[in-house]
Amino acid sequence: MGLVGELRRRLTMLLHRARFQRDLDEEMRLHLELRREQQVTSGITPEAARQSAQRRFGNLTRLKETSYRAWGWDWLEGFVQDAAFGVRSMLRSPAITLVALISLAVGIGANTAIFSFLDAMMLRSLPVKNPQQLVKLGNEDWGGITDEFACTELYSYPFYRQFQRKNAVFSNTAAIFSMVNDVHGFVDDRQDSEMIHVQTVSGTYFQTLGVGAQIGRTLNDGDDSSEGDHPVVVISDGFWKRAFGGDRSVLGHKLKLGAVIFDVVGVAPTEFFGNKVGATPDAWAPLSMSRSLPPDWAVYNQNFSESLDIVGRLKPGVSVEQATANVNVLFPQILRSFPDAKLTQENLARLARAHVPLESMARGLSDLRNAYSESLNILMAIVALVLLIACANIANLLLARSTARARELALRQALGARRMRIIRQLLTESLLLALTGGALGIGFAVVANRLLLKMISEGSDTVPLDVSLNERLLVFTFAITVCTALLFGTLPALRATRLRLVDNLKSGRGASSAAGRTPMAKILVVSQVALSLVLMVGACLFLRTLVNLNRVDAGFNKEHVLRLDIDSAITGYKDGDPRITTLFQQIENRVSVLPGVQAASVGRHK
Amino acid sequence: MAALIRRKPDSDSDRDEIPPGTLYLLILKTLAIRGRLHGYEIAESIQSCSDDVLQVEEGSLYPALQRMLIKGWVRAEWGVTAGNRRARYYTLTRDGQKQLGIEVSQFQRVMGAISRIIQTA
Q1: What burial class does residue A589 get, using C-beta atoms within 10 Å of its C-beta: 0-12 exposed, 13-18 middle, 19+ buried?
Q2: Is B43 helix (H, G, I), strand (E, B) or coil?
């Protein structure tokens, strides 16, 4: 009961307003009648009895209003009334409304679009179990292979195995190859190859992240127990739908990656995109298969081929500080224990200096975050400025309109409307304007997001970043919309209701236009121009930088040069196989004689 | 709190206003004694029980009753009067009985304090 019951009763009342008012009217009418009859029996005239009854009852209208207000819904009714009135008055000046809506849609849309990128890259948690328990060794997101001694960012597979056994602070640990293998592979016995992004991980990967499979199984430690004989993959939801059309009987299908045929043993959950924001692998294969998976990284047995990220799930009750201490005890101990450790003077000094920091994995790793976080923050500031300009712009428009409405507002005040009531009315109109603009802005943002994703993606391979609308985004948009409304609505509302009643009533529109350029309007215009100037200068500088970058002299004539990527891994030839050289010579010769080709050459990049 | 009784009708100038904040208490107590009443009966009952000393601005009963309905202290249902008229009857709920206890002790505390002050003076 208590508050819940009260709320329920209030809601019932809201839904049956008409019946409620009928009941109240009838009840009061009965009371008046009974009192009148009682007075009549005491011997006065019917008319006097009626008056006496009314006197004793009090002000009927006021009492009805008080009763009605007791239910606490008058604000809602007032709001609905104001909103309806607002719509009508907005439609009466369609030009102003249209301009205001466009400015708002652009301002709010740009903010929403940029924020959705910020959200996807920097704010959202990994879709895994208790992401806040996950930590990564090292605090920078490196990708690659190094043989540098005592590297604190990347680790070798044997180090990972030792660390997994010896550490006392993690309930689970996993190793993740710091790069994604882009393999041209074949699905089943299809003829056309397909680009498949394969992430190699330790067998404990899914278990550590706490992610199950939606079909089949995930990888397990057994898949990672000995090198080269566990050709299994778990595929992502996206790849499952793309390559297999979401077929439920996908298990047992094959992927031919390089020379080896892998069995599909499971499909990852829909929301799981891996551990790296902005890089969704198509498939996860055990690290034990590294050497068989183009480009054939030999990392499984090399003590000093450091290429793995190590992540761990903290045991309950273990703090990050405790974990850091434990990791830094084990780190030199394990490295020194490797028989091929080159314990030179320099390396020992390096080891003494090395400190392994732990970083939270709650939001995942991201190359994108590193590459774009600064630009995103700058962009966020810029779009906030754009919104400010829009606000100033609309405030000015509203000011102009309320000047035109001065007579109407003066009349309403003269009829007894309180100033607060009129301000509320004007603010409701602003809010309505902002909400409509916000809705348009969301539409704008959806389009802008698609364009932005294209911009940061190379070629046809769109960056797999989920920037679709979500709750957090809508809350953000709603919040900035309301703030915007307050920002552009308050000043004009205050200004419009501060009236010299008599002047305004007497001279109608005329007097106000004489006072048209008020100090506030001037300030608004000045600030608008100032902000726009800042943005213009910023945009020009930015453009110049872009143009200059395109003009950088690469040391060769870039005109009419085309590039073609060829993945030789699908031939199954190992690196250094003389047949690869022959193959490329043949390709070069054949391309050279194509009509329209002046010269052709082969280069190699990895 | 309830909007109270300022008016002194010329004919009834010997009657007194209800002390502020006691309207709920009076309604609750009246319903507790008399059971099931409609608005007019509540007003009459308050007046006659106080030997016509207390004068309620009768209309102010209704906003107060609405607030008490929201709080769940009273329940309302339509019935028929002795004169065969439709009327809304109010009865006390269990929450209302509890509230009556609270209001009574509160009132006694305040009145006790006031009368102590008066006596020392």
Answers
A1: exposed
A2: helix
- Residue A269: asked if its preceding bond is cis (omega within 30°), the reply is no
**Beta-strand (E) ranges in B14-109?**
16-17, 37-38, 54-55, 74-80, 86-92
Structure token pair of residue B19: 């002390």
Element (H, E) at A182: strand A181-187
DSSP A537-559: HHHHHHHHHHHHHHH---SS--T
> Of A356, A341, A429, A441, which is closest to residue A116 (Cα–Cα)?
A441
The dihedral built from the CA positions of residue A76, A78, A79 and A80, taken in this order, carries a sign that is: positive
* B101, part of any domain: yes
Nearest Cα neighbor of A306 from A163, A184, A454 is A163
| Range of weakest confidence among A125-129, A180-184, A579-583 | A125-129
Tokens describing residue A582 = 């022959």
Pairing of strands B86-92, A358-360: unpaired
Nearest-by-CA chain B residue for A37: B83
Nearest to A402 by CA among A431, A426, A432: A426
| Beta bridge pairs of residue A174 | A311
Per residue in A22-63, pLDDT (tens digit) is: 888 888 999 888 888 888 888 888 888 888 888 888 888 888
Taking the C-alpha atoms of residue A372 and residue A377, their distance in angstroms, rounded to an integer, is: 8
Q: Is residue B1 in a domain?
A: no
Domain ranges in chain A are: 2-72, 101-118+369-551, 131-360, 560-606
The alpha-carbon gap from B55 to the nearest alpha carbon of chain A, in Å, equals: 9
- Scored b (16 or more CB within 10 A) or e, A303-315 reads bbbbbbbbbbbbe
Q: Among candidates A462, A439, A461, A433, which has minimal Cα distance to A450?
A: A462
Closest Cβ–Cβ partner in B39, B70, B85 for A71: B70
CA dist., res. A28 & res. A23, Å (int): 9
Residue with the larger pLDDT of the pair A462 and A357: A357
- Asked if B72 and A5 come within 8 Å (Cβ–Cβ), the reply is yes
- Residue B2 clears pLDDT 60, i.e. is over it: no
Q: Which helix (H) or strand (E) holds A205?
A: helix A205-209
Number of other residues whose CB lies within 10 A of the CB of residue A158: 18
Residue B94 lies in a domain: yes
Cα A326 to Cα A135: distance, rounded to the nearest angstrom: 13
- The domain that contains B75 carries what CATH number? 1.10.10.10
Q: How many CB atoms lie within 10 A of CB A575?
A: 11
Q: What is the pLDDT of residue A493?
A: 81
**Bridge partners for A176 per DSSP:** A201, A309
Distances (CA, A) of A105 to A86, A200, A382, A441, B99: 19, 44, 16, 4, 53
ipTM: 0.81
**A12 CB near a chain B CB, below 8 Å?**
no
* Alpha carbon of B111: minimum distance to chain A alpha carbons (Å): 28
DSSP A458: B
Best interface-test mutation with A: which of B4, B66, B77 has the largest number of A CBs within 10 A? B66
pTM passes above 0.80: no
Looking at the 3D structure of chain B, how many domains does it have?
Answer: 1
Contacts for A198 with CB less than 8 Å, ≥ 6 apart = A180, A181, A182, A183, A185, A233, A257, A281, A282, A283, A284, A285, A293
| Whether the predicted pLDDT of B94 surpasses 60 | yes
Closest CA to A161 of A271, A62, A303: A303
Domain that holds residue B85: 10-120
Catalogue the long-range contacts made by B94-100 (C-beta closer than 8 Å, 24 or more residues apart): B95/A1, B95/B71, B96/B28, B96/B31, B96/B32, B96/B68, B96/B72, B97/B32, B99/B24, B99/B28, B99/B71, B99/B73, B100/B25, B100/B28, B100/B29, B100/B32
Is residue B97 within 8 angstroms of chain A, CB to CB?
no
**How close B19 gets to chain A, by Cα (Å)?**
18
Distance from C-alpha of A114 to C-alpha of A382, rounded to nearest angstrom: 10
